[in-house]
Amino acid sequence: MHLLNTLYLTTPETYLRLENQTLAIEQNQELKLRVPLHHLNAVVCFGHIQLSTPLMHTLAQQGIALVLLDANGRFQARLEGPMAGNVLLRQAQHRASCDRDLTLALARSFVAGKIRNARSLLQRGAREARNDADADALTRRAQNLAASLRALPGCGTLDELRGIEGEAAREHFAGLSLLVRPDAREHFSMQGGRSRRPPRDRLNALLSFLYSLWMNDCRSALEAVGLDPQVGFLHALRPGRAALALDLVEEFRPQAERLALTLINRQQMQADDFAAREGGAISLQPDARKAVLVAYQERKQDPLQHPLLAQPVALGLVPLIQARLLARAVRGEADADGQAAGYVPFLIK
């Protein structure tokens, strides 16, 4: 299945090796599991995971991505075989990145999707709030995000667009702690807004971890349809930066936030599931990381109705659908009315 073909390794000092056409997983020189390679599309390693060279060669030859993250989920490296995909699509993508109007239009769509989904999250929180003060505060912030959406069509430059996106993000994060159940806010609230490198509180640490999982899935989706994840439109191009994956993941960030809030509000995440590190960083404990990964994989199987499809699809397949829609927009394909097909972001309800 598309949703269950990523193997996550989180236990430190685990050793991975090739055994015929299976991936063998050892801990303390004891075999724990064998996974047939034909079941895998990606292997994601957190922290100090060891791999044999023959295994790395075979993964590359069979087109199975090997992703190395640090213990907190921050990207370190990715090993892949020869580049696949449609070279004509990549050529069109590179031309589009040099087209000022098309770049601005695509970037505006990514930002609109992010703000709309963030606003939906706040509106839902306002409806379910346990007291009037929280409901009023969340409603005001949702209204401010609506104002940001109204300002997007008037943006004439990427800098203007990024400015609106940044202000909307600050507004959203300022309200996010109000979506945490009141008796958990002592331990799960944003202290001073969004902090990333490193996360300075438990809520930021949990969000960073979930964002990194969505980021990896978005990058894989882009590569699956033949797009170059390095060449983006909203995010500036930098060496080693997966700018297009960062573009695509924007509309999925509220999905990560919804799962984080669910885990906290259902008391599946406790304060002692996190540890303070040197320098003030907060990170998930190993067992908590595993619990989040299980919840993430389960959430990806949730069925939903995509607005452009006639039948329900699993949430985990939506990045692939969006990547295909993006490829269509990059190629300049026409829609049913004969107009150039723009990119339509995925909106949550």
Can you put this structure into words, describing what you see?
With 349 residues, this protein is α/β, with parallel strands linked by helices. It folds into two domains: 2-79, CRISPR-associated endonuclease Cas1, N-terminal domain (Ribosomal Protein L15, Chain: K, domain 2); 87-331, CRISPR-associated endonuclease Cas1, C-terminal domain (Four Helix Bundle (Hemerythrin (Met), subunit A), Up-down Bundle). Helix content is 46%, strand content 14%. The protein is built from ten helices and twelve strands. The chain has helices at residues 53-61, 87-97, 100-128, 132-151, 158-176, 202-225, 243-249, 253-265, 286-299, 318-331; strands at residues 6-9, 15-19, 22-27, 30-36, 42-46, 50-51, 65-69, 75-79, 274-276, 282-284, 303-304, 313-314. Strands 1-5-7-8 form a four-stranded mixed beta sheet. A hairpin with an 8-residue loop joins strand 11 and strand 12 (313-314). Helix 4 (132-151) runs antiparallel to helix 5 and helix 6 (202-225) packs across helix 8. The radius of gyration is 21 Å and the shape is globular. The two termini are 25 Å apart. The mean pLDDT is 87.
Q: What is the topology, as strand order, of the major beta sheet?
A: 1-5-7-8
- Please tell me what the overall shape is: globular
CATH homology superfamily of the largest domain? CRISPR-associated endonuclease Cas1, C-terminal domain
As a whole number of angstroms, the C-alpha radius of gyration is: 21 Å
The main β sheet shows up as:
4 strands, mixed
Estimate the strand proportion.
5-15%
Please identify the top-level CATH class of the largest domain: Mainly Alpha
The overall number of domains is 2
Q: How many helical stretches?
A: 10
Topology pattern, helix = H, strand = E: EEEEEEHEEHHHHHHHEEHEEH
Helix content: 40-55%
Class from secondary-structure proportions: alpha/beta
CATH topology of the largest domain: Four Helix Bundle (Hemerythrin (Met), subunit A)
Uncertain parts: none
Number of strands: 12
- What's the CATH architecture name of the largest domain? Up-down Bundle
How far is the first residue's CA from the last residue's CA?
25 Å
Mean pLDDT: 87
